[in-house]
Amino acid sequence: MSVVWEVDDRGDWWVSLLGEGYDSLEQDAFDGDEEFGQPLISWVADATQEMVMAMEGLVWPVCILHDLGLHANIEHLNAIWTCSASGGHVVGPVGKLA
């Protein structure tokens, strides 16, 4: 399964899965954000998660401790996956889950 993110002619960001465009983000959404990369990574992870759920009917990714869907967030300027069970906990960095 291949996830692609790209910028269109207007400068808006798009994420697509299996050739189907799904979510977009206006180019100025991160204007003034000095740590542009990590919020964008978090947004791509969130959009990818939404696509997998919509297109495949799967909850992804899942916390291996609680069997619940994870949520993309930013913590200490890093894109991370979190689980809301047991008061919430960090599962790992986006792009590095085992």
What is the fold's blueprint, element by element?
Elements: E1 3-7, E2 13-17, E3 20-25, H1 37-56, E4 71-75, E5 78-83, E6 89-93
Antiparallel strand pairs: 1-2, 2-3, 4-5, 5-6
Description:
With 98 residues, this protein is of the alpha+beta class. It has one domain (3-93). It is built from one helix and six strands. The strands form two sheets. It has a three-stranded antiparallel sheet, with helices on one face. A three-stranded antiparallel sheet has the order 4-5-6. A hairpin with a 5-residue loop joins strand 1 (3-7) and strand 2. The longest helix is centred in the middle third of the chain and has 20 residues, at 37-56. The radius of gyration is 14 Å and the shape is flat. It starts with a strand and ends in a 5-residue tail after the last strand.
Keywords, separated by commas or semicolons:
alpha+beta; flat; 98 residues; 20% helix; three-stranded antiparallel sheet
**Coarse morphology:** flat
End-to-end separation in angstroms reads 17 Å
What percentage of the residues does DSSP assign to strands (E)?
25-35%
Strand/helix succession: EEEHEEE
Strand order of the largest sheet: 1-2-3
**Structural class of the helix and strand makeup?**
alpha+beta
Radius of gyration, in Å, reads: 14 Å
Number of domains: 1
Largest sheet: 3 strands, antiparallel
Mean pLDDT score: 79
